[in-house]
Amino acid sequence: MVVCGLACWRCRWLLPLLLGLAIIMGIIALAGRGWLESESEPYVQQASLWESCTRGEEDLNWTCESLMDYGWGRAAAATYLVGFVILVICFALAVIAFSIEILRFNFVRGIGGLLFVVAAFQIIGLVIYPVKFTEEILLMGDNMFSWAYGFGWASTVVVIGCAFFFCCLPNWEDEVLGNIKPTYYYSSPERAPYLN
Question: 191 lies in a domain?
Fold first, then answer.
């Protein structure tokens, strides 16, 4: 019987794959134009991390203004982008850490610490953006924070989960490396007479 638990050596690539998924979601958040959108027709407002666009109800062309003209826009973009860059570095370090035969567990715990830093940067950017956007940008109609903003939060949640796993993985060092001998339990329905 083959058992592949959380800390199994054969399953070591799950954590780097999850980090890769977080990177993909981060790219979608950085490139997506759906951070804020009109909730229903007529669609007159949409925004990304980088710019805010509006149009009239009958107009087909979007008029865009850069959010980089605002201090909070630069701060939100910079913090999220710094977190993303550190995430990419953590992914590369995780691939290296799990590729070598002798896994360095202190190295893995350091990756977990860096992932907490990534989460902090991303959360700061994801909180600054809606708070300051709704205070300083004139909103037209009913709007909602939409799919690209959601991908930013999804990436952050995956990063937080991976950070915990990377930090806790050294606690299962012997199981991961296969250094524990199996324990066999034998139970008999009847006690042997010589044990009485």
Answer: no
DSSP state of 186: -
- Let me know if residue 194 belongs to a domain: no
Could you give the CA distance from residue 115 to residue 99 in angstroms, rounded to a whole number? 19
183 falls within a domain:
no
> Residue 155's CB: how many other CB atoms inside 10 A?
28
The structure tokens 């007529």 sit at 42
Task: Quote the tokens at residue 169.
Answer: 């993985």
In tens, the pLDDT along 57-72 reads 777 788 888 889 889 8
Q: Which domain holds residue 58?
A: 24-170
For residues 29 and 60, which has the higher predicted lDDT (pLDDT)? 29
Contact 48, 146 (CB under 8 A): no
Q: Residue 112 has which token pair?
A: 């977990």
